[in-house]
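Intended use. Records like the one below are meant for learning the mapping from a protein sequence to its folded structure. Do not use them to infer anything beyond what is encoded.
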Amino acid sequence: MPSKMQIAKLVALSLGFWALATLYIRLLPNALINPLQGSMGFVTTLPVAWLSVWLTKVLARLAPNQLLSGVAFVGATAMMIDGVALRWFSDLYGSDPLAVRLGAAWLLWGYGVSMAVALTMVLRSEFRAR
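Structure written out for the chain above:
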């Protein structure tokens, strides 16, 4: 179970990751709309997700058995912020509906990849411990 300080850090990380992704969508809509750049955005999500999971582990000082739940907490919090923002404040992401839709797809992909990265890290850690 994470401590109150860890939970506060996880919430802060959620807000930070959400803000960065929102800025990317808002400031670089053509990177989402352009077919090649948009596809590269999906490919480059893997190292970004790995970095995000690693930062979550280090900054929240998560023990190995807390990593998956910590990353799930960050992802769930950021997804809820995205859900509210996309529903009632979609202009935060920009004015082009196509860019906002493609940005939302990229966000979903990023959450899934981040969870997969965290799961892989935990499984590798458990495998090495055997």
